[in-house]
Amino acid sequence: MKKTISLFLAFLFAVGCMNIAYAEDSSAKLYGTYGDGMLFQQNKDAVFAGTASAGAEITVEMYNAANELVASGNSTALADGTFTVSFLAPAGGYEEYKVILKENSAEFAQLDNVVFGELWLASGQSNMQYPLSQAKGGADMFKNSQKLSKWLRVLHMPVYCNNNESDTFADPQQDVVGAVWTTGENGYVYNMSAVAYYFAAQMMEDLDMPVGILNASLGGSAISSWISREAIDSDSEVKNYLVSQGKYIEKSDWETVNPSIYYDMTANYNHKIHPLRNFRPSGMIWYQGETDLMNRYTGEAYADFYDLMQRSYSELFGYKNESMPFICTQIASYLYSDDGLIMQDWNINYCNIQAAQPESRATVTIYDVPLTFLPEAGSIHPECKQVTGERMAFAAKGLVYGGDDDYTAATVEKAEIRDGAVYVTFRNEGDGLACGGDELYGFAVCGADGVYVQANAEIVSADTVKVWSDDVTSPVSASYAYCVSNMRSNLYATADGNLALPVSQFVTDKSVGTHYWFDRPWTDCNDEFTWHVMNETEANKNHFSWSADGAEITFANGVMNVKGGTEFTVSPSLNYKSGQKFDDTDNNYSDYGKMSFYVRNNGDADVELSEIRISKNSLVWYSPAVNGTKSVEATIPADGQWHLVTVDINRLYLFGNEGGAGRPCGKLSKVKEIRFAFASENGADISIDNIRFAPDTSEGRIQFDPDMSTADTFIEKLSAIFIKAIGMIISVFR
Fold first, then answer.
1. Which of 400, 427, 458 is the last residue of a domain?
2. Largest alpha-carbon pair distance within the chain?
3. pLDDT per residue over 237-283, tens digit each?
4. Are residues 54 and 7 in the same domain?
5. Model's pTM, two decimal places?
6. How far is residue 188's CA from residue 180's CA, in Å, rounded to a whole number?
7. Among residues 70, 559, 603, 670, which is most buried (max CB within 10 A)?
8. Does residue 574 lie within any of the structural domains?
9. Residues 6+ away with beta carbon under 8 Å from 311
10. How many domains does the chain have?
11. What is the torsional sign of CA 148, 151, 152, 156?
12. Helix pair 299-316, 342-356: axis angle to 10 deg
């Protein structure tokens, strides 16, 4: 799909053209990166470049609307026939100029509607390339032929060399064929990056001036493809890493190895970045990393590439003794690995990269952005790009333009353990931490065993959150948003009384993690639907959180309400089709010792919890004993009050027989179904809330209660006999 979109864009670039007037008596010409409607960075040198006769005098003149000469410059073409000529750009504003270039006094080019403002480079892979015409919001604007601001100026760099994805250049290109400038009023602008558009739109509003975008991205591209050979050869860490991965290509071997525009070193730099060298952007916004993550780059290696890219771009774009500002975003939720955790570490790494050079870098978080997507674009490409672009603009305002000092995602400064809780203090919290809802979600805590459970969290000061669980009395670590589907996580920094950037994911102590908590939204009983991130594209969508048999389920006021007949069951949705669990969830319950939940009887008669069936397959289930008893049943009185029911997952009875084994052979490592069974003589009206799991604190993993007197059916009697036999065998070997 990435290649299809890129080919489509390449075709559009090919049919674009620049409106530059040429004098018949001059051989001089401007490079393809110049055109009508272009924008130069204000208050820096406006550099014009091209080719001319060796030794020719090149003059540039700029005229205002009254046809008054307001700026000029001159230079001499070099022996190789190239030239640059410049003048100091004026302050940005809403005035269009005419620029005329001459070779030996003969005019050879005229540029109309030239403006000055803030210029930014936008680069990365498919989520940056993703066009405005397909983005949420932008698609409707495109369909309705809505004209955008005339003060938005975009240089569209061609997707492929020579419109062919198989073509690459071994050397940096001085010029580029197929580049075209557009204003926001030109319908072609909808081919620009959606992220870059929303970034520019917000910047125009915040800065009150024209904004230009150098639009240069390619879906599926690796970071090494955006860095020059000269830079790579100057950095032993980066070069050695490429060599170790078999990815370093000697220049002499370029034509023989058939290099890829997507994966190979320098390929995109040579074609898309070097031809932009004469511009002076204020910074770069960067949305990239999915390719390198899936190619198993280490976090340290990616940081080295990022450092080198920033250093080399700073030199290329005229930054003297300072670093070009870089703003990157974390990547969207997707199953980049089987366990789903590699993405979280990768996103945390972006924040670590920022912290290494905070004066010139910012990282924005996007885990709360909706993951809806167009089927043809694939689930790795969320269609909502507005939030990402606007957050990058927020970061740019603080990093470059004197806005909010905390322009990057908040990260952990320190974590202290006291009074049975983990107190997490942040940096970059802005005006103070805030919850993006009624209560905080996304937190977990673990004890020395490293088994994380869902935790409570409370903002106790402007920069500190208290994290705790009543089931973990001696916590050693806390985590936040550390799972694939973490869109519910809702801790934010604030600015000017508004939610700003979400706090970055974290684990306060990675040394003790043995079983991380994957968010199970069904446990909170709040919502009818849950979004799941799946390997199969068609399964990436909202699924029912719960189902019922013999009952009706509704959700209101943060609880699940159930109205059922004399016998009914309710079940959380753990699988999206027969035999396959949701890829972004965890079906391993073997490290938990207890499960608890609140239940309220809203009716006039008592309701019985008949049992909770925990199934590993379609044939076998286990029912946990109510805590402190040998019974799987509990009575919910008709008093309209909330009652806490706790069951012992270490005391599991096969087929519900109350004479069985507690966690026999770790049967809960792969749970297929959890079913809550209720009964009432006259029907029931109950509410359920806050299902929680507690770590296993039992001394022994196997407990036997072979009491056949409680077996009521033939299957239960067989179960009891089976369990008793196992107990006798184990006792022989003790």
1. 400
2. 110
3. 999 999 999 999 999 999 999 999 999 999 999 999 999 999 999 99
4. yes
5. 0.92
6. 10
7. 559
8. no
9. 231, 323
10. 3
11. positive
12. 40
